[in-house]
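Researcher: Structure prediction, please.
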Amino acid sequence: MTSRALTAVPGNLADAALAEAIARIEPILDSQPAAAIQLATAALDDCQRSAQTANPYLLGNLYCKLGYCRIALHDLMGIRDFEVALEYAEQSDDLALKAVVFHGLARTFIAFGDSQSALDYCERALTLGLTLDDEELLLQIRLSLAVVFALTQQFDRAIAINREVVEICQRINALACLSRALNNWADTLVSYFEHLSENQEQADVGLLEQAITYAQQAVLYAAQCNLPRTQLLALETLAHTLEQRGWYSLALEQLENGFLALSGRGFPKEELDIKVRIGALLLRMGQVDAAIFCLQEARDFAMQLGNYPHLTDLLKILSNAYEAATDFAAALQAYKEFHQVSLKARDQRAQISAQIFAAKMDLEHAQREAQVHKSRVNQLEDFNRSLRVQVHEDSLTGLPNRRALEAHMQQHLGSTRTEMSFVMADVDFFKHVNDRFSHMIGDQVLRIIGKLMRASLRSGDMAARIGGEEFALAINRTRERKSLEVCERLRKKIETYNWNSIAPDLRITMSFGVSGIRGGDDLSSVMQRADNALYRAKKNGRNRIERN
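Model: Predicted structure follows.
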């Protein structure tokens, strides 16, 4: 999981408690997942008891960390945590959190063997991650993608991605990510070597030499970053590679030393994997009694653990060890256990597959619901925007209407430092235009006048149609003399416009009345003065400007 800080500014006590829990969990995610789970569940319990509504971003973040820790301990409940986290990510509409959740789901499906679903969620996480400025998150997603490619035997792709991630980690000094990338790279190389060998193809021993180097480096970097789980995984990768190389004693030494240093750190499954590999190595080296003792300890520990996924392999190796010691009764008993556990394991795998399938269905349903909700919200926002336009816009000219003008003037008339001129304008002889040329031509005239007005004004000014052929202009940050110049330019544009393009012999002019704003003015008083000036313009011959 990315180490990028996801916490938001808390808005209430519940948020503050969640943010504090997240801050305490972050440093121990990789080193103490069991303790992190206790902290997370306690914080979520407290949040549920609180009467306050918590921030969905913080809740999603915490559930994400809870899922990450549970998957690290091979607890299938982690997928449900990510499911809840995704719901909160949708609510908060935070793309970074959603990308982290998708990546967590990808890692979950990797852990439980569903490569196709893992690839699907890796792609979703990567698509979102590419829109974000979070290089470490992208590195983590690419690492998971490389694991999926390795599991599906697309080794060339997996190797290329691991190489790229290692180079970037070295450049930015991201040692924790580097340790995981080196281990993944080494594991992919040894898997590739085995694949070639099993298919009777020429397997280059150089692949193993590279894998040994990378696994050794992974162990060192994981130790520097206090990542015990990564150390255990890298140790097993190293021993596996040494074993493939035929260096059994060295592999055994590495495993025994690592197990002594790292056992009891809270990762029983990984410890058991190493214990089983030690037993298998001892058996291969002919140290049968030591192998039996080691494997018996591992079996007892696995039985206590209750959900060790490789118990069948352990029992099969133990049966072989008893057989090598000529203890055929014990070998038969171990084989019977192996057979019984195999049947149970098959049932458990079926149950896990069913749970994963159900979780996937729930996830898909939740995402569909989220998309439907988002679509409804967008439709409602579009409808509200449309209503606002209808309420404040003149449908014929596209100019603001009288309601919008009143709201605009109310803002400026309330200012103590208003420098504004207000203009009333009227199309001359407009009734004659409608009667002679038709109302359709009259409407076209009004539309063109609206366009000419918009083109003549600056940002912050307003032209509005207030009824019929009447218009108003609110010219901001301008003294009265300058407003007269603006009106004169507009008057000339209207007079000289090629109205013949609409109808032959059509001629349009406009009269203007201008008033400044005075202290104590309201909209009614300023409109009255501008209207008086407009009346004089009409009386004095039209196609002219008068001021109050």
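Model: The radius of gyration is 38 Å.
Researcher: Thanks, that helps.
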